[in-house]
Design goal:
The protein is of the alpha/beta class.
Length: 761
Amino acid sequence: MKISDIYGRIDRYLRSDDTRPRIVNFQDRASLIDFRNHFNVGTAVFKTPSDYSKADEDLMTENLYAEIQSFNGSLFLIGFTSQLRLKGRDALHQFITQIAHMTLKSGKLILVCFGCAEMLHFDDTRIQGLVYAADGATTDLPHLRFIGEGISISKEQKVTKGVDKIGSLVETVNADTLVIRTKKLAGDFPSSMLHIEELVDAYAALCDMDSSTARLDKALGKPEQWAFALKKVTSEGSWNSLVTHLFGSPYALDLAVGQWDRFAGDVQWLYFIALKLFGTKKNWCLNQVARAATSPQDFVRKVYRSILSEDCHSSTFAERYRERKQLLQQMFDVEDDTEVIDYIKMTKQHKKDAIRYLTNNTKLEKEAIINLISTYAEAYSYQELKIILAEVYPDLAAYLDAYSFHGNTWLDAYFTEYRYSKVRNRVSSELREMAQQQAVDHDFLKLLPRIAVVDGIPQEGTFLYFVDAMGVEFIPYIVQKCREYELKLTVTVSHCELPSLTRCNKDFFESYPPEQRTKVSELDDIIHHGKENYDYQVTKTPLHLIRELEIIDEVLRNARTRLMNSNSTSRVLLVADHGATRMAVINDHIIDIDVNSKGTNGGRVCKYTDAVTTVPFAVHEGDYYILASYDRFKGGQPANVEAHGGATLEEVVVPIIALSMATEEIEVQVETKIVEYSFKQQPVLKLFSKSALSNASVLINGKWYAAEPSVDGQNFAFILDGLKKGQYTAALYANGTEVATGLTFELRSKAGSSTGKAGIL
């Protein structure tokens, strides 16, 4: 039927006395809109489904039917057939049929249908004659997209709130998709004739906005996290743009991991999601963890545990270990004790090799390393332990380094074994034998008294650090740290006064003006007074060593700062009053001799008495017996951590360390990369120094070799006696100060020579 004919028939109907409803169907939206605009004048009333629905609820047809019966005037129903498409074909057909068969008491009723041609066939020819079907092309019905409350969408999309508006929208809005914000679900309309897409949560909305979201499991985030992501992605336009904005680049996410601990919780989750979406090819650990993790918390745990499945003896382990270690250093500003504790427990599956999976990143791991060394002390050789610690705890490896005391070989072997015993928490038989021998020989008396050394150093330009209880045992560690901080150092060892107590060894400190000195008491507070909760009765392993090394490091860094920033200081002296012994605490043996006096200072000292003329392994000094063994006198209160006051080498041999800034880079070259020897030819190592040096010597495998006289102070020759053929590394010293390390060369015999050792003539 032509549109003009429909207009005419409706006009005549509105002027007539006929009370039967009219049904008008349009197949295209434009014609329907024109019809509405044409008749929406005067007293005509147009009603939509929203007029008979609560907000965001279904159509209440009962209310509509009741109003129709009592309505007096011209009533146009528009949008109803489109609304009832949500209920299904049967509901729509029933509605049309019921309207068609109604007889009004008064007034007029026009039901405007949209796209309902196939439902407007009635057997009753009288009713069929009241149906007007307009000619015109068919307009496709739109799809519906349900958006849940709180779901962000792009500003370009027009959104209507409530399903009650759908009928009107279908018939008035020219769009392929209608976006409806609603609490309803597609499942609420199982028979719907309109296609419904659900974006009832943020995850679904994200999938719609950026298809890459579908690669993510919905379970990876909580509803509020997906909502946060949706808001951000909506603002930026895509995941790629958002990740670029937040983290720099989707293809270099490893560069942003250092901000992990500073990311807010929601941003941490976004970084985790970014890794899931884009991965990172440049970081084995991140890539592996990103694939497997299910949450930011799980991500952190898996970063910690990532190395556990790797064989510590495999060719790839070292690289992956370092990558993970660095990753954790970057991620955390503050230790995550919960995860660290969990990880330490998990490493124990590797038994003695558990130490290889730990790092020095956290205090808890350092403690675990020390505990493992104690537990598996017999399983590690000295060299093996050094190699392991060089990777997992470099500071502790530096502490264990051998050190040559420039001719005092009795100190070399003793302190190498002492440090090894302290770390292992054992008094080795070798150390005990050396200690007992020194208790008889008293070789420390061959050294100068400390005051004699200190007095020989000019006070002008010198600032003195009195480091209470800093023993000779720490010299290798101090040497390594000075290399790192580019500090030049000279080490001299001396002996303190007996007994090795602070009150007997303060003369050097008092000789300096107050403005040129300071005292550092933290070491003594720990080892002597049990500060910072270290107590042998509670913890048997030497966990305090961690803090000892930290304190010394702090002293060195402070000294470096003073040297760099003070115009009046060109030299810093680190001087100790005494050392301390861990072995006396571990040994825990009481001398069964009644000296009629209670021991003091951990049982290391007791008053002299004429009644007892001889005490084994003790030094008689003034009014005191002073133990030079690892025993203690009766009545002496055991030390909390370490003891001092006695006469063991670790208690009485003290360092005087002079520090200055390394102002000149000393470049040294090995002139003879291959050193040959034979029965008739001594092996000679030749070195060249860019800078003139005096009193040059090299240290090779713990043995010193003095340079032959040099004409210019730059070219040096060293005759090497007693070395077997092989690869060697030398360290060069000048005036007792290390100036170059890592000087490698090969020692080999000349062709035809059968000499096993160099220098045998």
